[in-house]
# Entry
Amino acid sequence: MEYRVTSATVEQTRELGKQLGGYLRGGDVVALIGDLGAGKTAFAQGVGEAFCVKGPMTSPTFTLIHEYQGRISGSEMRLVHMDLYRLEHSEEAEVIGVEDAFQEDAVCLIEWPEIIEDYLPFDRLIVEIQGSGEQPREVIFRADDSAWVQRLKNMT
# Structure
């Protein structure tokens, strides 16, 4: 299934993340795809807002992984935000423990997931953000898993 929406501003992109955040649950993996400056981090910040994350959420470009404590639907939940832009080989995913974050007590947001395609679970949600600069963005939600299809229908 594919669901498309246009975002004219950074605030709208952040709001889409917040909206999705309300439908996320433990064990979810969200692959964020888009060029530099597309709005992946703004989207992730919206998810963080839905999770009531305290403090600023920044892209973990140099540290690769940031972990936040959050709360969703009344339950404590870890929000793991990865930025894999600096990885050169997929095998590096094992070294930094990417798969260790795929746990039932965490939601994972992964920027630049293409390099670790083989490590990602099948039932992930893909969020592709097309566009950059001052242009509006097209945000495309894609999922093959039936549970995601139902949640995306509920979002629309």
